[in-house]
Batch of 2 targets.
Target 1
Amino acid sequence: HRGETLDGTYTALRKHWQGMTDEMQRLEEENNRIFIDAYGLADELTPEVPLAEITLTCNPAYSIGGDKTDAQREDELRARTMREFLSYAVGCMVGRYSLDAPGLILADAGGTLADYLARLRAEGVPEPTYPPDADNVIPVLDGDWFADDITERFRAFLRTTFGEAHFRDNLAFIEDALGKDIRRYFVRDFYRDHWQRYKKRPIYWMVSSPRGSFQALIAMHRYRPDTLSVLLNGYLREYQRKLDAHHARLIEQADDADIAQGARTKAMKEAEKVARQIAELREWERDVIHPLAERRIEIDLDDGVKANYPTFAGALKAIPGL
């Protein structure tokens, strides 16, 4: 169903889904006619099956409940499909999936980039079309603080899958479906969608400071005893250094008499916000991340998410009921 653009691709896919739904409805009604005729129930039953009773997830009349219009259900189906596309993209970022081979790629404990490349070579793929993240730490932040953060990784994924020529239109299609820009979705909504999709047993874990000033995704299957050390030394401390420099620039702006008063006031308010973030992250590093990193915790995938996730309490974003 893939077309040149996401809009065209989704339109073709939606048409295919509607065909599946219509065919299922036809078959169920035909079955009803057979049984009604066989048991002489024509005076008591009718063969018609309402569209809402066609139990396919691609049928919005069934899968999207509530008191909604057909147009609202169509909008929600489009949004849900884009969220699934983003979820698949993240799976490719961490190496769980690949654009070059079907099925799961890295699904065993402690999977590495070398394991990923070896699996692709076994499939006859010398180099991946879209390489996964090398260290299993993907920052999820509200700005362009790291070149390999989740938003930039997704933009690269979209360019790889649908090309540069339609990149802006494709990104606009996704953001229109979601009702927000892609960075805002990843920072605020992606993880909730993920753990809900996996029934509170997420396979991607969100390392998060108490107020969310710093966030990063790690894949459970690629977790290693040194993963938190990589996150601490390669990302958290680097982010704090960048915040320190940003804070210093804001203070300079706030004290610059050549700048308009409104701009100086805005800079001071931003500086106060950044100062609170810095204080939060230093305390979190000292009390939570550094001690956990030093412990070099090992996990057993056979114990499941329910047993492993609470081991990192204070480091991972809390999930109600887990």
Target 2
Amino acid sequence: MKFLPAQLTHILQRGPRRRNVRLLIRFGFILLAMMTAYSVIFHVLMELEGQHHSWLSGFYWVLVVMSTLGFGDITFHSDLGRLFSMIVVLSGLIFLLVLLPFTFIEFFYAPWMEAQATKRAPRRMPEDMRDHVVITSLDPVTTVLMHKLSQYGYKYVLIVPNPDDAVRLHDAGVKVMVGDTDDPETYRNVHVENACLVVATGTDVTNTNIAFTTRQISDKPMIVATAKDIPSVEILAMAGANKVLRLDEMLGQFLARRADGASTRAHVVGEFGPLLIAEATAGGTDLVGKTLKTSDLRERARVIVVGGWERGAFRRASPDMEITSNLVLLLAGSKEQIDQFNHVFKVEHAVTNPVVIIGGGRVGRATGAALSRLGVDYRIIEKVQDRVTDPDRVIVGDAA
């Protein structure tokens, strides 16, 4: 009950809601006036029949009849009285059992439920919120990111423009705040000046606007944005993004490193200061058929094996992990240690046949460019003629 005044205040804040409350009060006065008139008529008809009742009994009879309870302790004996009773019953059916519930739900209960939903999806975060991650759109990338942030105990807030979507996501366990991503007030409400990271994964134009708006509020948080077009990379950097990611290019490089015919040289995929994270295929080396314990990999190359990818599944490193020809090792070490691994285990394959890439979209073209840098020939099968940029490398047709 202590929250009721606050909820009523929230309901009455907006003009349409105040109008609804006024209509509900007006309906209540009309209903009270009708009951008073029925009570007066009740007394007149009862006097004509020779029955005497108090005014309280008159209101009691009207309420009992209009609500269709019909106790039967006070009744008319004349046809005129029974006709009046029928009129009171019919009006009670219309006003008390139809109009009153509908009016109450429409003008009071529904706004109250909306206020409850708004409370679940706030428009402003607590003042003491610090070192959180601000996510500006919901997509497959940010869905995985939110899962990882929760897994490692980092605070995050997803900005959602639509209140209904925000409530649905809140009920699903997502930490949300209602706001428009192009409104500076949204970033003040999310306390972007205290955030450690802002993630923008929308369109290039939207991401640029987010970066500009964030920098308008604060220069403190790091901004990571995605870009689909090459010119957008420089524009996003000028707008204030600290790191611009081209996911299609990253995926293309990832696929190219796993293509048959590429060398087993370790490819750096991440950096943490002097610590490098690299991937290297085990196929073609003398490591195949051994376990990590018997491979003497640590002694020979002085790198740390974090784990390995095999046919899309990640395997954590353990002494008994078998190294197969399909295994892609995930390594950690300094630049010197990675170079030592390449010196010891690098195997170049003589490639004469091209790699076939099905689909010439952004990822397909990025994969082809990455294969070219590795010295591997390729052919792209693409059925959209407009995507053909290199006729010598593209076969126009349906891969099916």
